What we know:
With 214 residues, the protein is an alpha/beta fold. It is built from nine helices and six strands; from the N terminus they run βαααααβαβαβαββα.
Amino acid sequence: MLRLLLLDLDNTVYPESRGMDHDIVRRMNGYVANYLGISPQAALELRRERAIHYGTTLEWLTVEQGFTDTESFFAAVHPDGEEYCLRPDPELARALDALDLPKAVLTNSPSEHARRVLRKLGIADRFSAIYDIRFNGLKGKPDAEAYRRACESSGVEIAETLFVDDMPRYVRGFVDLGGEALLVDEAERFADEGLPRVRSLVELPAYVAALGRL
């Protein structure tokens, strides 16, 4: 029986096509470039080469580059007004309301970013908790403890949770722990990943009903 809906935030709760994550990545590349004294393009290439071995760019910088100023990083990558490209989403609100399950967010971003996004979409009151990167000691998905902490704090077992994310390796991380997981694949890039997929969270009520675990 499912007892919790645990959702990623970026490119999951809001569509990738809104462009918000593109802005986040651009700011992140700029911050990394400034910190390392290289060009933004070089920063992008280095992130692609090295950060993939970690859950986040921040974790990579901390482990390999001696970085310590996490609050400066968060402020630069997630400034006030970053949510300008989003708008209230009544259809998403109705989809969430159709699911009689507690709902929480598990994100590798800071909580202030998550709160901005949920408020702008008009769905902040649908979520009982936000488990952010600080909550997980700056080591987020796909680290197994990130999933375990979120479920334990919500008072449920991993096997009682449906986790939804747009990153195949984060989805697999949850499946490997024995949980039920779903991939959001708006652009249909991941047909070969062998994972259950939807294009948006609007499809969630039908997917959950088909699982037959309520």
